[in-house]
Amino acid sequence: MSQPVKATRTERTKRTPSSGGGESAGSRRAAAQRLSMRRKLAAAAMELFATKGYEGTTVDEIAARAGVARRTFFRHFRSKEEAIFPDHDDTLVRAAAVLDAAPPHENPLDTVCRGIKEVMRMYAASPAVSVERYRLTREVPALREREIASVARYERLFTRYLLGHFDEGAHHDGDDDPLLAEVAASAVVTAHNHVLRRWLRAGGQGDLESQLDHAFAIVRETFGSGIGGRPAVAGAVGRPVAAVSAAEEDEVVVMVARTDAPLTEVMRTIKEALRR
Known about the structure:
Layout: H1 25-52, H2 59-66, H3 70-76, H4 88-100, H5 108-124, H6 127-139, H7 141-163, H8 177-201, H9 208-224, E1 242-247, E2 252-257, H10 263-275
Antiparallel strand pairs: 1-2
Helix pairs in contact: 1-2, 1-6, 4-5, 4-7, 5-7, 5-8, 5-9, 6-7, 7-8, 8-9, 9-10
């Protein structure tokens, strides 16, 4: 299998050591206490959202339910919609640490797949909480927007990492590597979210990690074997599972896929669009 990205900058890029090795016992304890309080506030917010509704719940009520002052709430969260995502900041740091500590000769796409598993583990650590949070985000647009913003942060992190493994002088007309890096990062995030949503809709049942490994294998096969593939097949009701349109003038490719489209067919459609 060919490498999906070039490692031409690897030797010139200094890797910063994971911050975990230099932390004192005091700083680790403070971080644990911070995360514990954030989770406590999140649990209070979710209980109130479930019983009083999102719009009917105030920050003062969340703080009171958690047994803390209003100012304590705002030391941890900027708004009530942010309160039910207590782990995203810490998970982003852990994912970045995986990238920073990657072995020099590891396939960068494999590194990214390992990094996003930190997000999966965050959800899998508390299935009941994750399922309830998923229900709330489906019902409350403000929470859904917050979730989308969080996903975008992961995608930017992984895209920057993959782009960082290309030769700085290789960004010229006819070179598809930067495009491949961005699409590959999006594919990893999409594969993760596809599997995670399926797991959440199933009530948090099943082996999430093995399902994710299967999805990543599809991504690796797609981007590790170069550009090219078969066109999308028709769905059960006669509509394509995915379709692409290109605005050649702006070099933009737009893909539209049905929500029940198999991941394999979505990936094939992306490959076919990039091959054209």
